[in-house]
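Aim 2 progress update. The chain analyzed this quarter is reproduced below.
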Amino acid sequence: MADLNIREWGDGERTAVLIHGLTAASTSWWRVGPELAARGYHVYAPDLPGHGDSLRWTDYRLDTVADAVAAAIPPAPQLVLGHSLGGLVLATVVDRVRPERVVYEDPAWSPGHPAIAEAFRAQRNWTLEQIAVANPRWSPDLHRLKLDALAHWDPGTLAIVDGFPGYDPKPPTVPALLLLADPSLTVAPERATELATRGFEVRAVPDTGHVVHNEDFDGFLAGLDGWL
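Predicted structure tokens:
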């Protein structure tokens, strides 16, 4: 097992795994985890390397981060959901993890750009007030959780996205849902249409930003109808 901090909810017979995005932590699933537990899941949410209470590394690469996640989570879970960077990590390990079904929440599959890395780097020193201004639809509790996540985040993880060429997923080998923000900044409409032809089910939660489960929790759950 990789040395990642794992947050857990529930003790159901079904297994679910939640993989967070860049600059976040397992605490970002503070509503999703208990909701899935109430639906009969034992939920596992790792802190990615350089995030939350997991170890800091001297060198971050997508392949090594993905290896750490694959080693840390239970094999063959009923459900795995990855948000943003977590959706990218999930896509690279899905064949090894062998889940029954997967959900990619606004995954970071588009090419990286130095400006994106710098925008993330600037968040490291954000105040609670700046977080609230940037995320007006989030609750105050979420603003505080984000502040704590940023305090525990290693900006060295930006090496994963800086200059990232983009990810072109293969047709899914298990049922796969692409749950997008509206508008999505990571998967353009024409790209979503093309991915639907490859076998992904594509849905969007209207009028939401990148962190769909924080923007509109009820809409997020509605978007998962039939997948939980």
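The mean pLDDT is 95. The longest strand covers residues 14-19. These observations will guide the mutagenesis experiments scheduled for the next reporting period.
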